[in-house]
Amino acid sequence: MPKQLNKKMAYRRELPDWSSEYLDPELETMSREEIEKLQVERLRETVSRCMNNPVYRKRLEEAGVSADNITSVSDIRRIPFTTKEDLRNNYPFGLASAPLEECVRLHSSSGTTGNPTVILHTQNDLDEWANQVARNLWMVGLRPNDVFQNSSGYGMFTGGLGFQYGAERLGMLTVPAAAGNSLRQIKFMKDFGTTAVHAVPSYVTRLYEVMQEQGVDPRKDTKLKVLAIGAEPHSEEQRQRIQNMLGVKAYNSFGMSEMCGPGVGFECKEQNGLHFWEDYYIVEIVDPETLEPVPDGEIGELILTSIKREAMPLLRYRTRDLTRVLGRGCPCGRNHVRIDRMKGRSDDMMVLRGVNIFPIQIEKILMQFKELASNYLITLTTDEDNDNMTVEVELEDLFTDDYQRLIQLQKDVKRALKDEILLTPHVKLVPKGTLPVSEGKAVRVVDKRTVYK
Prior knowledge:
With 453 residues, the protein is an alpha/beta fold. The longest helix has 19 residues, at 32-50. It is globular, with a radius of gyration of 23 Å. It has a nine-stranded mixed beta sheet, sandwiched between helices. Helix content is 31%, strand content 24%. It starts with a helix and ends in a 6-residue tail after the last strand.
């Protein structure tokens, strides 16, 4: 077989004993010293690889950075940042560090605000990506005898194929159900004995509503035990509601196509922060304005450097996600950095009358009211030269006929929101099913202001 074809063949990995808590024991339980030593080695290799790309080579040479003069992880601060605009400005393959004949797949964003961001993968990149996702699924207790149903979109969206190949790498029976068609999703769960599902949080809520309509009790009529939820910001209150509704454990997942897709970070059974796999990535948290590092525990912008990719490694990529470091150790035995759930994105931030507000802050408050359902919409408008916010949120059917109680509930929600965001929004309580439902990421904010802040 020709050498270049042989290089593109996939492989099936050997799995440890099912009782093991770790899929990759040596890598998952490394000490901090071992992790940093491996990161330096892989960062040097990545910088050397990026010298194959003319854009990166110019930047690195101007910054006086080479593989030879990287001796510690902190040396990464000498490397310039990479942004989404860099990917768009060099569309489609201008940031590739490998020739196209070595690449076997690409993924891209929708490109609704300009050129899409395109990411290339070699076969080895795909194999390592599958290993990352498999590591996450094993970490939360899934094994080859489980049935994994993926309700994410496939195609250019990485959530579909990323979880698909990770679940297959683990040896599970996989159900590539794709997005939407809730009745079929529920039928598959019942008929195939699905034990694990990957979905965006807002869609999980919709699935539960359809289950109720169909008289399906997820605790009695399905074998569900694990949910992987991600792709859109969600609060701890939303996660708890999902777990209570379905009687499962819901684990937060983080990924982005620029790094590969899902698999970058995942919660363990402790559900106390996302483990970011530092054998694959170097994690930094910086002030989004000064771009200087912030202390552990302080919220800043997440910066990621991929250190085990061939086709298109990215150096110090500005994710625009806001989060913080929780720690570098865990009762689960893994010493990889633990990151808090995403608090929002620096480019999702709403500025209303000089106040910075994130949609996740509003969701957190809404989810504290048992009378409210999970679907909500934030609309920003300009009225007589003043910016205003209207929060529409659906009611659980139980409370829609009690007018006085609705009035009091509206007042309570408005007061709680004011305490959180320091402004008083308009609050509208609407019947369940009134607001639009998306099969992909939920649309939570509509900005109709005449002047965008």
